[in-house]
Fold this protein.
Amino acid sequence: MEPHYRRLLLKVSGEALGEGGGGLSPERLRYVARELAEARAVGVELALVVGGGNILRGAATREFDRVRADQMGMLATLINALALSEALRREGVENRVLSALSVEGVGEPYHRDRALEHLAGGRVVILACGTGNPFFTTDTAAVLRALELGAEALLKATKVDGVYDKDPVRDPTARRYDYLSYEEVLSRRLAVMDLTAFSLAREHGLPLLVFNMLKSGNIKRAVLGEKVGTLVGGERK
Ligand code: UDP
């Protein structure tokens, strides 16, 4: 089995790491780590950007000053990164946490060259604390890091099978798109990621693959270039 991609960036939302309500679910962490180990075994270089929404979402925290709340949100992503790192280690996947905010003694500070060295050395890199700046999201961080690290595509793991014309949870007649151009996403006002993240991806022609990570084997299928989810930009195999 030959991977279709050489290097990929996978965005894992905080929600994907916590079943049901908030916090972290050990079962879900184990599941995600196993899925990643399987995908990694195909021979692709994997960088992960983790979200923090299961613990704290800065923009939604009205009680705090926005910048302070976003700092807290970024630290939440670090907690998730550490949890995922440990879960991956247990599955035998060597990995490193690289953080955009420097927390001495916990992970390494993010540095592009260092990240590339780890990837070349066969280690999965887990990128924590988003861009390191308030007013951004981890989706934007994912696009930014994918471009910096020369990933061929950004895999965005979600709870549904891709991008739909209507909300598939509420409307059973909703249709899933197999492929969309960046322009179609904008003209049809489809929610793929926030506009800052999307604009950056579009400007640089970064393909986005939106797919369901809760279906076992899907990450590996995506790595192999098999038809899963919705591809935005780029080309189908
Ligand atoms: N955040 C930030 N700058 C970044 C990335 C994230 O300030 O570059 C903060 C922001 O408060 C955000 C929170 O971290 O709400 C958690 O990230 P996000 O909401 O993107 O996580 P997800 O929804 O993917 O779990």
